[in-house]
From TrEMBL:
<dbReference type="Pfam" id="PF08242">
    <property type="entry name" value="Methyltransf_12"/>
</dbReference>
<dbReference type="InterPro" id="IPR011990">
    <property type="entry name" value="TPR-like_helical_dom_sf"/>
</dbReference>
<dbReference type="InterPro" id="IPR029063">
    <property type="entry name" value="SAM-dependent_MTases_sf"/>
</dbReference>
<feature type="domain" description="Methyltransferase type 12">
    <location>
        <begin position="152"/>
        <end position="242"/>
    </location>
</feature>
<protein>
    <recommendedName>
        <fullName>Methyltransferase type 12 domain-containing protein</fullName>
    </recommendedName>
</protein>
<dbReference type="InterPro" id="IPR013217">
    <property type="entry name" value="Methyltransf_12"/>
</dbReference>
Amino acid sequence: MTQAFHSSGDVIADRRAGYARLLAEDKDHAAAADLMEQALELVPDWAAGWDLLGSYHEKAGNVSGAISAWRHLEALDDNGLFGAELKLAAHGAGRAGEGTAVSYVEALFDQYAPQFEAALVDKLGYRVPEMLDAMLNEEMSRQGIDGFAQALDLGCGTGLMGEKLRGKVGFLEGIDLSAAMIAETARKGIYDRLDKAELVEFLSHRSGTADLVTAADVFIYCGALPPVLSAVVPAMQPGGMLAFSLEAHDGEEPVFLRASLRYAHGVAATRDALVVAGLEVLRFETAVLRMDRGQPITGILVVARKPPVELTAANDHGEDGGHVAA
């Protein structure tokens, strides 16, 4: 998905870009790229134009042309709005920065918000909230849990996960980078509180308050999992539960950036990260999360628990190697 059209300030260039868009809609991406190149001869500093040119080259199978366009874009896109760094990294022409590309993700979902549910649920068969909710319900039943006092729904979007949680949570808080997404979900009246924030920064100000944290298709934009878990776990109460999804890959790399600009996480590396974070894995499943460009996207669904008694607290009470000192 490309960012919303931004005018070049030149009528002729905008007209050529408009014709290029029509050609792209007819799947003639090579011709669309030719027209965009003509437009950019008139306005060489037009960042949105270079973004479109890169997209058309990529869809035409001209990866070198796409990389060249994104190199121009990178030089113009100081705030990272168009994700040039990510696009280059995903095609082996650079390296993505650490953590979430905040400006890119925020702009992406601000644009996506009005049609988010129709595109994701109706067209792509997105079922992550339903699957995570079913797993949570099973664990609640197994452990005799009636409900949760306070939950954080990270990357709440338009409230698809929140709708599933509402009946079992006393105080439900949603967090999202996108103001447009928050505006969409606010209309539904699902959450007791909504916050516009980057999740790691948000969690740094929370300490042991949540007995449930959810993140449905959120960490796929965050890169490496350990830093995210390092932020999440301190925000949880002892005994609190964490439910989240990831896109999966079977390789040895802990994480890599796909051409979709979403991160895929290794199955073994994800298990290891959970253990290192001090979490008890309750459920760990792989499943098809949705379709993307006609192909099924396999992911990981996790329900984990923060130990009911902190190890540090146990050690303070005289435990040594798992045994209480006499």
